[in-house]
């Protein structure tokens, strides 16, 4: 029928240390956005050559638009390749006290190691502003406590990482820095007024859009003064603010739809959530673990598309954005010669520079 398969909008995670045949089949049919890798997918203690062999397995897509082979490699407590011989970077909050030029060099070094493994997308930089000391989830992942400080360092980091051949994804729009709950466990709420949200939370995202960032990830957070639905399901945030007001033309990616903030009983089944998110303006969907939820999400989109022309139109529009983004990616082809040189002395020196007291 020439219809776009909804799975072409999915980035899937999986259990185990081998590439699942079902995922490889999807990639060969060009019917998947890509995969996300976690520490659980790598042999421990982490073996760079195993990681390279795994990434390389995903290089089976026909044509000129490689699949996303992605990872959360921020530094600090969120880095999936987090043991020697890889460089273990300190939390990015350390960059706040240094010149932004250091952020560029750190982004480049971190990007190089991912590139050597075969990863082509990293879910970084964090664009959240650390404003709430009770925040259990962002804290030292943020690159500072002011919008300007965060924007300057995050975009310098992005520039370095993309120069190394790894595309970035800013997160968590419109800002997760003022929450007091963890969205992996529950649905956080921020009661700040609109003016404050735009002046502080949204400002680094606006700067990233102006700088041409290609992908942004949503926050599973309710901003009660703007919309009672979480941002991932909010056309106010995704369409009115991000698309129209900020002028973002890249890919809007949901945060993980397996997280309790959107998987809990108060939001709806994954099938309802994914349709609502698509109609609100999300282009692509992270489903990090559960194959059953992945299948239910896909089936829900197929059924919704059959009966609702708006869903068909949104799938088509999002698939075009996803395709354009994929055409900017390097294929997941590792550099085993460079991996053999790990640990990298210059990258280790950057860690010491980050940890030194700044200006």
Question: Could you describe the 3D structure shown?
Answer:
This protein is of the alpha/beta class. 40% of the residues lie in helices and 11% in strands. It is built from 13 helices and 13 strands. The strands form four sheets. A six-stranded parallel β-sheet has the order 7-6-3-2-1-13, covered by helices on one side. It has a three-stranded parallel β-sheet with strand order 8-10-12. The radius of gyration is 19 Å and the shape is globular. The N and C termini lie far apart (61 Å).
List SSEs in N-to-C order.
Answer: EHEHEEEHEHEEEHHEEHEHHEHHHH
Sequence stretches where pLDDT stays below 50 over 5 or more residues:
none
In whole angstroms, the N-to-C terminal distance is 61 Å
Number of helices: 13
The beta-strand count equals 13
Q: What does the overall shape look like?
A: globular
Percentage of helical residues?
Answer: 40-55%
Strand order of the largest sheet: 7-6-3-2-1-13
Radius of gyration: 19 Å
Name the beta content range.
5-15%
Structural class label: alpha/beta
Major beta-sheet overview: 6 strands, parallel
Question: How would you state the average pLDDT, rounded?
Answer: 94
Outline:
With 359 residues, this protein is an alpha/beta fold. The chain contains 13 helices and 13 strands.
Provide keyphrases for this structure.
359 residues; alpha/beta; six-stranded parallel sheet; 40% helix
Write the layout of secondary structure elements.
Blueprint: E1 10-12, H1 21-28, E2 34-37, H2 48-57, E3 68-71, E4 73-75, E5 78-79, H3 100-117, E6 121-122, H4 147-163, E7 167-168, E8 170-173, E9 189-190, H5 194-201, H6 203-210, E10 215-218, E11 222-223, H7 235-245, E12 251-253, H8 260-263, H9 270-280, E13 285-287, H10 291-307, H11 309-326, H12 336-339, H13 345-355
Parallel strand pairs: 1-2, 1-13, 2-3, 3-6, 6-7, 8-10, 9-11, 10-12
Antiparallel strand pairs: 4-5
Helix pairs in contact: 3-4, 3-13, 4-6, 9-10, 10-11
